[in-house]
Amino acid sequence: MFRSPMSIANSIRAQIPPIHQEGYPFIGGFALASLILFWLWTPLGWIGVVLTVWCALFFRDPVRTTPVREGLVVAPADGRVSMVQPVVPPAELGLGDKPLMRISIFMSVFNCHVNRSPVAGRIERIAYRPGKFINAELDKASEDNERNSLVIATPAGRIGVIQIAGLVARRIVSFVREGESLAAGQRFGLIRFGSRLDVFLPDGAKPLVAVGQTAVAGETVLADFQIGDGGRVYRTD
Asked: What Pfam families would the database entry show (predicted)?
């Protein structure tokens, strides 16, 4: 069956995720540098092209389908679940000094870095803290690294979400303000380039993910307050 060039072009375009507006200055900068490198030496120019494509992929902002039933907690970031354990939350969250279940998601420089709200609720607090830029996979990064923290009030309790800068990241960008209401899966910020997201669950919540799993922002369910889960066993192939 004959397919028009326009139909083929539309099919290809549908497979290319949109780019977040925060990325355009960086992509433009990489593209300009590539042109200069081509003028200096062609092989360098092609390296610049590869880096420009990588930069565009880094700032991709694909459409996500978010489960919206009350009680669900979805992943705020793309990446690998690196830690699932009870930890005393940072003081700036105001969530007390008792350990709460923390789920950490590590984002490599190849993951999409647009962050999404794990729940529907009102932003009760935003707290920014400057710090270091050590490897975000290390546990001490939660205390030492630059971070931006949100406390979201929900019917199930207050949930903490922390954007943590990493070894390469040098800028945490927030799109929201205190007092705003968020929908589950709504974009609330991003981090440039490579970092981590921590989610602190209210007391009694049980995680539905394990270390090593791949999380998809706005889609992967991290926890569910409306089910009694007695614990799960995971197998890694």
From this structure: PS_Dcarbxylase (PF02666)
Output the six-digit token pair for 102.
């923390």
By three-state DSSP, how is residue 74 classified? strand
| Sign of the CA dihedral with 103 first, then 73, 101, and 116 last | positive
Long-range contacts of 171-179 (CB under 8 A, 24+ apart): 172/128, 172/146, 172/147, 172/148, 173/22, 174/126, 174/128, 174/148, 176/123, 176/126, 176/150, 177/123, 177/126, 178/123, 178/124, 178/125, 178/126, 179/122, 179/123
Length of the chain (residues)? 237
**Beta bridge pairs of residue 101:** 86
CB of 211 closer than 8 Å to CB of 81 = yes
pLDDT in tens, 7-55: 655 555 556 678 878 878 888 999 999 999 989 888 898 999 999 998 8
- Which of the four pLDDT bands, split at 50, 70 and 90, describes residue 235? very low
Q: 78, 213 in Cβ contact below 8 A?
A: no
Tokens, residue 219: 């889609």
Distance from C-alpha of 32 to C-alpha of 194, rounded to nearest angstrom: 23
Instruction: Give every CB contact of residue 15 below 8 A, 6+ residues apart in sequence.
Output: none
Cα-only R_g, the chain: 20
Q: Which residues are catalytic?
A: 195
pTM of the predicted model as reported, rounded to 2 decimal places: 0.83
46-86 confidence digits (pLDDT tens):
999 999 998 888 788 999 999 888 889 999 999 999 999 99
